[in-house]
Amino acid sequence: MTTDTTTEYAAERPARMRWAKHAPEVYKAMVRLDTAAKQGLDPRLVELVRLRASALNHCAFCLDMHTKDALAAGESVQRIVQLHAWEESKHFYTEKELAAIELTEAVTVLTDGFVPDEVYEKAAEHFEEAELAQLIATIAVINAWNRFGVTTRAVPGHYQAGDFA
Amino acid sequence: MTPRTQVLDRAVGQAMSALSAAAKRGLGDPALAELVVIRASQLNHCAFCLDMHLTIARKHGVSETQLDLLAAWEEAGDEVFDARERAALALTEAVTVLTGGTSRTKSGGGFVPDEVYAEAAEHFDDRQLAHLIGLLVAINNWNRVMVSRRIPPGGYTP
User: Fold this and answer.
1) pTM of the model
2) Quick check: B92 and B36 in contact, CB under 8 A?
3) How many angstroms separate the CA of residue B37 from the nearest CA in chain A?
4) What confidence score (pLDDT) does residue B158 get?
5) Mean pLDDT of the region A10-34
6) CATH, range B10-149
7) Is the pLDDT reported for residue B104 higher than 90?
8) N or C: less crowded end of chain B, CB within 10 Å?
């Protein structure tokens, strides 16, 4: 995390647990799943999906990581910032990206109920069946990482683009 | 009901199965595993997952009383769910309902509260807890993949 000499920030809290150390087989399966899910999808789209889900799930570590990865992949600051108000800033995104972002929100906020037909159908207009299945898997997988990150309180600020590549 | 799509990439499906299996194995408590998996599936409204895991739970000897009262476990009393099960169920709900509110809103989730995590850590050692979290992550993953594709209940055969 960036610090300067004049501003005093709140103390950094340690992670609750290094889960991958205690469950290495689970971690291995997650990495395998992550790789399999994103096959065939545009890497820039994948980062947008990951960022939006991570914001909805309040995963600080994931926001840190995927903001840095998105920037490293050539994404613009403007598109990253506007993503969280995308309904009011649609002109920064393609119709295909918007359909994916909307699906991301529906699949992420499942506890409030279901994935609406119109959201699914819009996604199905822009993604052919196999690609859509990958998109759904990618949304599910970032939700999975978000849950590990939030539950074990993974510490944001230390990630550098490409650390896990 | 017809599914929206049955398509799921083979490598994705295999990795998801490996994830669930590793988590379940590491937790080492098949009956408790089904309780938390069913509770998450209730919160995520996954019909296919409920049908499947209620079947498996009964096979593992989980009582009808527990299954009937699972959605109201907090009100069901210690005689139905013991302290360890309650700690696991509280964690399940916190890990599942991450969206919505902020740290100030009671309902609608957001974060995993310290007291919920601490209570779980009292009943499960680090290794068990890491696998319990893994299992909760895995079922949340399945819930999303099944609900999105609208896979109908009843398709599971043991």
Assistant:
1) 0.93
2) yes
3) 14
4) 80
5) 97
6) 1.20.1290.10
7) no
8) C
Contact B67, B38 (CB under 8 A): yes
Residues of A in contact with B5 (CB under 8 A): 129, 132-133
Does residue B33 contact residue B135 with C-beta atoms inside 8 Å?
yes
Structure tokens at B77: 């009393």
Complex ipTM, two decimals?
0.91
* B139 and chain A in contact, CB less than 8 A: no
> Which domains does chain A show, CATH number per domain?
19-151 (1.20.1290.10)
Residue B1 contacts A, CB cutoff 8 Å: no
Provide the token pair at B6. Answer: 């049955």
SS3 content of chain B, % helix, strand, coil (to 5): 65, 0, 35
Please list, in sequence order, all residues whose beta carbon lies within 8 angstroms of the beta carbon of residue B87, skipping any fewer than 6 positions away: B119, B120, B122, B123, B124
Instruction: Please indicate whether, in this complex, the C-beta atoms of A57 and B99 are within 8 angstroms of each other.
Output: yes
Dist. CA A132–CA A4, nearest whole Å: 45
Split at pLDDT 50, 70, 90, the class of B136 is very high
Residue for token pair 């207009």: A125
B47 touches chain A (CB under 8 A): no
The answer to whether the CB atoms of A26 and B22 lie below 8 A apart is: yes
